[in-house]
Amino acid sequence: MRYDSLTDALGETPLVGLPRLSPRWTGDAPVRLWAKLEDRNPTGSIKDRAALFMVRAAEADGRLTPGCTILEPTSGNTGISLAMVARVRGYGLVCVMPENTSVERRQLLEMFGARIIFSPAAGGSNQAVAVAKKLAAENPDWVMLYQYGNAANAQAHYEGTGPEILRDLPTLTHFVAGLGTTGTLMGAGRYLREKAPDVQIVAAEPRYGELVYGLRNIDEGFVPELYDDGVLTSRFSVTSYDALRRTRDLIEHEGIFAGISSGAILHAALSIADRVAATGEPADIAFIVADGGWKYLSTGAYDGSLQHAAEKLEGQLWA
Amino acid sequence: MAIEVKIPTILRTYTGGAKSVEAKGDTLSALFDDLDANHPGLKGRLITDEGGLHRFVNVYVNDEDVRFTGSLDTALKDGDSVTILPAVAGG
Q1: Please, which pLDDT band fits residue A24 given cuts at 50, 70 and 90?
Q2: pLDDT tens track for A148-197
Q3: Which residues between 71 and 110 in chain A have a beta carbon less than 8 angstroms from any beta carbon of chain B?
């Protein structure tokens, strides 16, 4: 395949079967798992899709003009994707990132030329959002794309991820993805509900250590503006331990080296798969591999016992 | 019938600092009533005046969000685990 620029090479990622981890790969009523390998995008994560769509939308409506500086709260991947798009299209980038994210994310952002402003670890991404909103008010010439409330984030998956999966797997029964900004699930979920109404839309969200939930009161909680729970069928909270366990299962049984959030997504997909398998019905379950494992090597996720690795992840943002 | 309820840091003032407590109930609604009987005021932080779950509170039974399993009518059985968490940003 030949492309004029890196951003043109985005999307059209492979959908790969998991014959060893699926409850029943063959037979009359197969229950099959399929991994959508989003680590094959230009910067190695699904966030490339949202970053490009948000930048294009801001260019189209005149908010983003040559030489502008983009501002974004991000736990990492969106920042890395935006940094790549900003490099290709000639913008500056300021990322507000919680300090409890992996060192690889920081190094990548710096290499792409982004400026990083750290927000406190306690409170996780909530704090990054709060700091970014304050910076946006203080720097009116900066353009905050705001992935949590930007319709172009979900639109990237309505136009890309969703149609690609249904085209490659017309027998799809379940779609499972991670819930962060909610963009993937809202966009692909809406597309699938329109085109294949029986498909179940399943969310997997990370359950972090207590530090991340360190709000002063419940009213400081955060639900992304993009989120509409009417799009989802079910929603699972996955511990670091289970996410790590499934991340290791993926590489051990299927040869797929994925990031930790993908392990959480697989965990939810397997819960659903086991339920369906018990009924004797067939199912084709597609789930998202959001990124590869490279950016998490320093966290110890792939080293030593699971229990020890999970303890080391305590307090880290891994999705 | 005993069900383990995990309490987030922010609500442990109601449980004397305990990270998890035991409670009883056939449904989530009954469980919250029982919780409130032993830890007065806790239910008021989880449920709005209109009787629904607070927007920024997520409740999971065995890791599944109750908003998709019947909300406060979600059935419970012995040995289930209930986790209460504040809604926080991901991404």
Answers
A1: very high
A2: 999 999 999 999 999 999 999 999 999 999 999 999 999 999 999 999 99
A3: 73-75, 78
**pLDDT tens track for A195-209:** 999 999 999 999 988
- In angstroms, the CA A216 to CA A4 distance is 50
For residue A180, give Cα distances in angstroms to A195, A202, A265, B75.
24, 13, 12, 28
Residues 6+ apart with CB under 8 A from A45: A38, A39, A77, A80, A81, A259, A290, A291
Nearest Cα neighbor of A149 from A208, A95, A226 is A226
- Do B87 and B9 form a contact (C-beta atoms < 8 A)? no
Report pLDDT digits (tens) over B34-54.
999 999 999 999 999 999 999
Question: Which chain A residue lies closest to B65 (C-alpha atoms)?
Answer: A235
pLDDT of residue A220: 81
**So what's the ipTM on this one?**
0.94
Interface membership of A125 toward B (CB under 8 Å)? yes
Residue from B63, B69, B71, B85 to probe the interface with A (highest A Cβ count within 10 Å): B63
Environment class of residue A47 by beta-carbon count within 10 Å: exposed (0-12), middle (13-18) or buried (19+)? buried
A158, two tokens: 């309505």
Q: What is the pTM of this model?
A: 0.95
Tokens 């709060």 sit at which residue? A130
Distance CA B26, CA B1 (A): 9
Single-letter residue type at A35: A
Is A218 in contact with B56 (Cβ distance < 8 A)? Answer: yes
Q: Are A76 and A113 in contact (CB under 8 A)?
A: no
User: CA angle at residue A175 from A286 to A193, to 5 degrees?
Assistant: 135
- Residues A293 and A44: their CA atoms lie apart, in Å, by 10
- Taking contacts as CB-CB distances below 8 angstroms, the residues of chain A near B86 are 213, 215, 218, 220-221
Distance CA A317, CA A102 (A): 8
Residue in the block written with tokens 């990622």:
A13
A155–chain B Cβ distance below 8 A for any pair? no
